[in-house]
Specification:
Elements (H helix, E strand, L loop, with lengths): L13 E6 L5 H11 L5 E18 L4 E7 L3 E13 L2 E11 L5 E21 L5 E5 L4 E5 L1
Antiparallel strand pairs: 1-6, 2-3, 2-4, 2-6, 4-5, 5-6, 7-8
């Protein structure tokens, strides 16, 4: 059984991050985490997307099955974390979006373009978080 608890210390810095119209969400987040030298954090946010690709992880196939969202939607909830993977910040996020007619779509965030804004609260964690490849699962997971 693997250890599932990271050593914890008091939290680090907190940020409010606002992404602008047409920003690529994951690209901008990785750039922000790199610039601020944040190796471990949690974040949450709301806003809107012009389009997005969410996904469902198929354990048998060991791959993400894309869910294309090709219309403007409200970001009802975006939550995630960042940990180091091969020395670089790696974002893991899940998202729920609301359509014009009230339908909801949710899943793992593979990509998204902002429209009109995305407002995030980022809380740096003092614990060291790293992701390690897990071939039996097919994706890198947190490794303590």
């Amino acid at each position: 059984m693997r250890d599932t608890i990271a050593q914890s210390q008091p939290s680090g810095r907190s940020y409010v991050v606002a992404l602008d119209l047409e920003d690529d969400v994951l690209e901008r987040l990785v750039a922000f985490f790199s610039k601020e030298r944040i190796a471990a954090a949690k974040f949450y946010g709301i806003g809107g997307f012009r389009r997005a690709t969410l996904a469902y992880y198929d354990m048998e196939a060991k791959r993400y099955l894309p869910i294309e969202v090709d219309e403007q939607v409200e970001v009802v909830s975006l939550i995630g974390n960042v940990a180091l993977y091969r020395g670089e910040p790696r974002v893991h996020a899940h998202c729920a979006v609301g359509h014009r007619d009230g339908r909801m779509t949710g899943g793992h965030l593979l990509s998204a373009i902002v429209r009109p804004t995305l407002e995030l609260v980022v809380e740096e964690l003092a614990a060291e978080l790293h992701r390690t490849d897990r071939p039996e699962i097919g994706i890198p997971l947190l490794d303590f």
